[in-house]
């Protein structure tokens, strides 16, 4: 009886850091792992919304265990569409991004007064299919939906496919029951789908309204607002979890299911085949994924849903499920509350579990420029030529009959349904608009051929309404490209004439060949007839103005030699000309290459004007985290110019910052806060004036240390931030009282959790700069009044000091010495941040070294196979095996690339040779195994057989009749059982995997560190066959 159970630790990490089962083990700022086999919900306590999770089974990766990847939404941030990784679905780290920039357009780049706040990349879908990874998401302002494809989700380049059409909350789905046919499911209040071509570039069929909310009259939770659909198939059903919020109820999950993917379109009677059931209504946990977990060969599905937990953000939770009659019950009999704990669904070896607890989606940084360079940073863009401006269309009125003094309506025409009539009011001819049926009902005038890219237009009108709500917003919009861009808006008071005016720069690349100016009121859900007010409008004007419009250039996006940690994201596209980690090594330099104007406006929000801070380019940001988060920086301000403002912020649309301003050569430090409620227009200078009682004259000081202590705990739903400063890094002082309350405004402007931001902007001239030395995080605030705690730092230093150079590989030794030196440099800390940042860095490295030193079970240890079932036993390990050589670092597939490989902390060896009419590769892994020998369990170390892979040199037909290349179960004459699956989600199209039923040893290490072994039997992965196309 032979099997590999758990690989035994072959060398131990010395030192005094606690064991992996100790709840006092160190964990990262965003880990919800309790360290005792349980975790709490929600996870992270940081903003990670709209999650979509995909699993790569152990048999399809080189890490020896199931690996999970997650996609989230980051809207206007750059880089965007983060990819996170986990082994246990509890602890996550960011390993990649799908793109560096979604677009080079003005809105994505905060250029020419444009912005993408509340737009950009929204709820997406991550899928693993046939060995490739697919990400699909919709954009609100960048040309609709996109699909990105890669075969290496952590380190590969992505191929972008523009679909040219919008799909709300799209879910990419490959129907494995139909050969992997690709679909996009989408919709709000309804479930629709489109079928894509095999290369995903075209829509080949459309299936609107597969179901709508009206199909489920017996399920009151299913409302016209349901959305966030993701599609899964298992156990014979297609499942579609959705988020909904019925009147008077909280956010909850309604699950759709059907045995027919396309419902009424394929049903014999043409009727609805989907059922709907409310499956979770508890504490607001709702939108997200279902995730599979395989234990002892059995797969179960669980919930991965987020909860609105502002001001921290929208935070995910892994919620266990039990199933009965094909329906799940989540949590504790349907009840899940914030702070609840659940047993881990996936048990990891102790060393790996300890390392995972130190993974995080936030990071301290000393800007060493040592982050890996990822391919997403190397995007190339075809930039449009500067548009030609027709001077005859500048400075002239482009609308006809805007004052209606002709007494005629033309050339104005009705949009949607409304009555337009010229009437005499107060001695003037005006346009009366009545009989409106929706927010777009009203007048419009075609401007084809008159509007040009790169030109800024001034628009204005007067408007009045006499019946309806007390106030109503009116909008001048430009209808083109399938959407409406707001050119101007204002809030009118019932019975009063109101002036509406604004400016709009037509972005480069926008197709304005078919464009209409329209007058509208705002769209909103659940509108009533009272919202469709009758109104009077007059003096509508639209004039192009001369001016310099900034054009995008290659240097904006070209890599500048600097690589930031993946925890960082820029607020909109950065301009790579004006930031650097190389101009002053060890410092982040932010140079002002643009000036703010105070004229920028939101593209989609009431109270539309932006503050200077929101208009600033190259603001570098990370997530905050709850319940308390502290960020500390040191900033050299000696390079600032008059009119420059720089500092450390906590922000969404409301914000507060500790900033330094230079005015008339003098530097002053103080606190700025912009709180709700917001006004439709405001004085930007007054909004960012220092709060009285917070200012400090800096004199000739060159470096100022700033600290933002963010408290999400003291007042639910509010963030209060105490800013502090120091001029020497030792003596700290409060900058006034805590700033706040900072809250969520729900306007869909920023629509994300609060972030820390490092910024620098110019009011007067370009060229000034600041340098930032470090960014240090802690979960302890100064106001907590606690003694500085060095325990983790000192214990980690002691553990690291026990290593000798011969204990580690050269690169490991070099990294350890560098991290250890930074930890030892903390001799007189003045904040917990100065301790926690190096302590967690060193603890995480030690934990990873412990993982590398303790090999784990090989992915699929099996007896030696032959092309037909055979009773021959597994090869026995040699008595005195030779240690493996240092691998050459191959990054190819370990199963078909000859040579030695170091993957996932383990060493693999693959050899390939001719076999019959094909090539066969054998893969072995250097491992410590446990075998049952003469009634006792014996541990041995050496090369252990893993599997055989037959390369794609023969067609499927050539494998006809061979059990390895045909689906089914087989039993040899000797009674050996053999099972083969082909063309499944695990094998991909064009391949088969074979398993044998065999004796094995199952081993598990208990909390006390003692290994327990037992004999068992199971299906074990054995062979792979890949067919030639």
UniProtKB/TrEMBL annotation:
Keyword hit for Phosphoprotein: no
Domain spans labelled Beta-xylosidase C-terminal Concanavalin A-like: 560-774
Chain residue ranges for the region called Disordered: 19-38, 853-907
Gene3D superfamilies cross-referenced by the UniProt entry: 2.60.120.200, Galactose-binding domain-like, Glycosyl hydrolase domain, family 43
Residues in the signal sequence: 1-20
UniProt keywords, alphabetically: Glycosidase, Hydrolase, Signal
Alphabetized SUPFAM superfamilies for the sequence: Arabinanase/levansucrase/invertase, Concanavalin A-like lectins/glucanases, Galactose-binding domain-like
Gene Ontology biological process terms in this record: carbohydrate metabolic process
Organism: Tessaracoccus flavus
Boundaries of every CBM-cenC domain copy: 397-522
One Pfam family linked to the record: Glyco_hydro_43
Family: Belongs to the glycosyl hydrolase 43 family.
Keyword Metal-binding: no
MF terms (GO), sorted A to Z: hydrolase activity, hydrolyzing O-glycosyl compounds
InterPro entries: CenC_carb-bd, ConA-like_dom_sf, Galactose-bd-like_sf, GH43_C2, Glyco_hydro_43, Glyco_hydro_beta-prop_sf, Glycosyl_Hydrlase_43
Name of the molecule in the record: Carbohydrate binding domain-containing protein
Residue spans of biased composition, Pro residues class: 856-887
């Amino acid at each position: 009886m032979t099997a590999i159970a758990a690989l035994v630790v072959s060398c131990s990490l010395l030192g005094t850091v606690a064991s992996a089962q100790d709840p006092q083990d160190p964990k990262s700022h965003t880990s919800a792992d309790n360290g005792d086999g349980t975790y709490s919900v929600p996870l992270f306590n940081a903003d990670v919304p709209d999650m979509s999770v995909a699993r790569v089974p152990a048999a399809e990766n080189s890490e020896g265990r199931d690996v999970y990847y997650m996609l989230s939404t980051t809207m206007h941030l750059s880089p965007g569409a983060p990819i996170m990784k986990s082994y246990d679905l509890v602890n996550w780290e960011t390993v990649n991004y799908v793109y560096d920039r979604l677009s080079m357009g003005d809105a994505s780049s905060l250029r020419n007064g444009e912005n993408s706040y509340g737009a950009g990349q929204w709820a997406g879908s991550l899928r693993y299919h046939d060995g490739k990874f697919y990400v699909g998401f919709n954009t609100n302002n960048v040309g609709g939906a996109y699909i990105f494809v890669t075969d290496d989700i952590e380190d590969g380049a992505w191929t972008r496919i523009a679909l040219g059409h919008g799909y709300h909350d799209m879910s990419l789905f490959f129907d494995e029951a139909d050969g992997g046919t690709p679909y996009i499911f989408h919709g709000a209040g309804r479930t629709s789908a489109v079928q894509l071509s095999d290369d995903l570039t075209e829509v080949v069929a459309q299936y609107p309204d597969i179901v709508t909310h009206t199909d489920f009259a017996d399920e009151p939770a299913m409302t016209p607002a349901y959305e966030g659909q993701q599609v899964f198939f298992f156990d014979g059903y297609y499942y579609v979890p959705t988020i909904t919020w019925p009147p008077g109820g909280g956010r909850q999950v309604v699950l759709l299911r059907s045995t027919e993917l396309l419902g009424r379109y394929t049903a014999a009677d043409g009727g609805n085949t989907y059922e709907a059931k409310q499956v979770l209504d508890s504490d607001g946990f709702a939108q997200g994924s279902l995730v599979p977990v395989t234990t002892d060969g059995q797969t179960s599905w669980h919930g991965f849903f987020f909860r609105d937990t502002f001001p921290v953000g929208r935070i995910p939770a892994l919620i266990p499920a039990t199933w009965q009659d094909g329906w799940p019950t989540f949590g504790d009999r349907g009840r899940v509350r914030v702070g609840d704990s659940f047993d881990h669904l996936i048990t990891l070896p102790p060393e790996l579990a300890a390392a995972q607890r130190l993974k995080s989606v936030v990071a301290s940084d000393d800007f060493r420029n040592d982050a890996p360079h990822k391919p997403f940073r190397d995007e190339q863009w075809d930039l449009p030529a500067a548009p030609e401006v027709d001077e005859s269309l500048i400075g002239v009125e482009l609308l006809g009959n805007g004052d209606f003094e002709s007494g005629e309506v033309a050339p104005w025409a009705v949009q949607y349904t409304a009555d337009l009539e010229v009437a005499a009011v107060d001695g003037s001819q005006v346009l009366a608009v009545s009989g409106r049926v929706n927010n777009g009902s009203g007048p419009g005038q075609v401007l084809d051929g008159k509007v040009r890219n790169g030109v800024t237009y001034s628009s204005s009108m007067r408007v009045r309404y006499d019946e309806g709500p007390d106030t109503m917003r009116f909008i001048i919009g430009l209808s083109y490209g399938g959407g409406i861009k707001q050119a101007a808006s204002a809030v009118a008071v019932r019975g009063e004439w109101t002036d509406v005016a604004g400016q709009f720069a037509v972005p480069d690349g926008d197709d304005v060949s078919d464009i209409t100016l329209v007058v509208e009121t705002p769209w909103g859900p659940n509108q009533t007839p009272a919202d469709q007010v009758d109104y009077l409008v007059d003096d509508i004007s639209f004039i192009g103005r001369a001016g310099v419009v900034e054009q995008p250039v290659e240097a904006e996006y070209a890599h500048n030699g600097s690589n930031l940690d993946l925890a960082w994201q820029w607020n909109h596209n950065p301009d790579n000309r004006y930031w650097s980690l190389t101009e002053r090594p060890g410092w982040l330099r932010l140079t002002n290459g643009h000036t703010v104007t105070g004229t920028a406006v939101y593209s989609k929000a009431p109270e539309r004007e932006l503050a200077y801070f929101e208009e600033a380019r190259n603001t570098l940001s990370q997530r905050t985290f709850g319940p308390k988060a502290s960020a500390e920086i040191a900033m050299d301000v000696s390079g600032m110019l008059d009119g420059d403002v720089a500092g450390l912020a906590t922000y969404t649309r409301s914000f507060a910052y500790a900033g330094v301003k230079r005015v008339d050569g003098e530097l002053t430090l103080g606190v700025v806060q912009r709180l709700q409620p917001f006004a439709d227009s405001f004085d930007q200078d007054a909004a960012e004036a220092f709060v009285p009682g917070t200012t400090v004259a800096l004199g000739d000081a060159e470096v100022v240390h700033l600290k933002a202590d963010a408290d999400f705990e003291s007042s639910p739903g509010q963030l209060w931030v105490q800013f502090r400063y120091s001029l020497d890094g030792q003596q700290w002082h409060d900058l006034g009282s805590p700033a706040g309350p900072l809250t969520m405004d729900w306007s869909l402007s920023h629509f994300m959790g609060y972030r820390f931001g490092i910024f620098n902007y110019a009011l007067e001239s370009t060229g000034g700069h600041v340098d930032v030395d470090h960014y240090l995080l802690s979960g302890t605030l100064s106001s907590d009044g606690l003694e500085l705690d060095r325990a983790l730092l000192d214990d980690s230093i002691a553990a690291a000091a026990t290593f000798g150079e011969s204990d580690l590989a050269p690169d490991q030794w070099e990294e350890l010495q560098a991290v250890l030196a930074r930890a030892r440099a903390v001799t007189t800390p003045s904040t917990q941040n100065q301790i926690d940042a190096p302590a967690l860095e060193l603890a995480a490295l030690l934990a990873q070294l412990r993982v590398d030193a303790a090999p784990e079970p090989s992915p699929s240890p099996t007896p030696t196979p032959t092309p037909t079932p055979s009773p021959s036993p597994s090869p026995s390990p040699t008595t005195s095996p030779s240690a493996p050589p240092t691998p050459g670092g191959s990054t190819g597939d370990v199963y078909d690339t000859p040579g030695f490989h170091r993957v996932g902390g383990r060493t693999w060896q693959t050899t390939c040779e001719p076999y019959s009419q094909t090539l066969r590769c054998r893969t072995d892994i250097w491992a410590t195994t446990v075998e049952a020998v003469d009634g006792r369990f014996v541990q041995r170390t050496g090369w252990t057989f893993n599997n055989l892979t037959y390369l794609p040199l023969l067609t499927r037909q050539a494998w006809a009749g061979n059990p390895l290349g045909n689906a089914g179960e087989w039993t040899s004459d000797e009674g050996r059982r053999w099972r083969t699956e082909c063309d499944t989600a695990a094998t991909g199209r064009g391949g088969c995997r074979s398993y044998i039923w065999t004796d094995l040893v199952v081993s598990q290490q208990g909390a006390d560190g003692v290994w327990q072994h037992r004999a068992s039997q199971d299906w074990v992965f054995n062979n792979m066959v890949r067919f030639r196309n």
